[in-house]
Amino acid sequence: MLPIDPSKKITFQRWISEGDLVIVYEKHDHMKAIKVCCGSVLQNRFGVFEHTDWIGKPFGSKVLSNKGGFVYLLAPTPELWTLVLSHRTQILYIADISFVISFLEIVPGCLVLESGTGSGSLTTSLARAVAPSGHVYTFDFHEQRAASAREDFEKTGLSNLITVGVRDIQGEGFPENFCGLVDSVFLDLPQPWLAIPSAGKLLKQDGVLCSFSPCIEQVQRSCESLRTNFTDIRTFEVLLRSYEIHEGKMECSADDESGSLGSSPCKKRQCSSGRRNGKEKWDARTVMARPCSEAKGHTGYLTFARLKCL
């Protein structure tokens, strides 16, 4: 989340200032979060970078080191923050997060309850979705995790949109002062069925609940609990498949010269063998796409349900 400009609550500060958190991008799989401080330096394999040189530059700038190497300074959006945050617990990633926000029908101004906070990956995206006038109340039973989450939300400039509480939601339920005021509830708990009755009391009529569980047995028991006061109960598994795009060689022959429908022209390059089986052969450069050899598999099941209207 870019730092919020207090004078214009719907816009953001696009220029880096001292004390801002920036995501230093070295390459797609190597990024780190750095707080900008005058007099401080960042040292990596590309050289030494002076923080002072960053101040006043817009997010997205390319900055040079003393050796001529470079990095990019990116804004700490929820998507990037998810990739660099400290993993105190297993986190939700972009595929699940975007699905959750869409199906929970979260828009600016919503009041959202979450348990548990964990590493705060989802919480950050929830805060951006409810900004500037909504609020996220998130709870974790572990006091140190809750304190670390507060520090992270301060760093990312989201503390005015998020309140972190220490509470055993499975044993105590949510605070009753939210009764009938909540738009959406998200549960990431070992035994979510214990918290479902409490969540039902707090949701507005037609409010939506989501429970994230890694095991199908947890889903089955949660659905049994949901049938009492909820309807439109649905469970999803979100699987993400990435593709590799790269340039490669493809062997062509004279018979292929006309090309298939929609193909782009390619430059002939004579093969060392000259002719094969009496036909001219050459290599063509083309762009190829194929599924990545390593793909993320199962993360968890997302169960959604809507509170029955009386």
UniProtKB/TrEMBL annotation:
Region annotation (Disordered) ranges: 253-277
PROSITE patterns linked: SAM_TRM61
Main location: nucleus
Sites where the protein binds S-adenosyl-L-methionine: 119-122, 140, 168, 188
Enzyme class label: transferase
GO molecular function, one term: tRNA (adenine(58)-N1)-methyltransferase activity
GO process terms (BP): tRNA methylation
Annotated keywords: Methyltransferase, Nucleus, S-adenosyl-L-methionine, Transferase, tRNA processing
Keyword tRNA processing: yes
Domain of life: Eukaryota
Compartment(s) of residence: Nucleus
Family membership noted in the UniProt record: Belongs to the class I-like SAM-binding methyltransferase superfamily. TRM61 family.
Protein name per the record: tRNA (adenine(58)-N(1))-methyltransferase
Record organism: Protea cynaroides
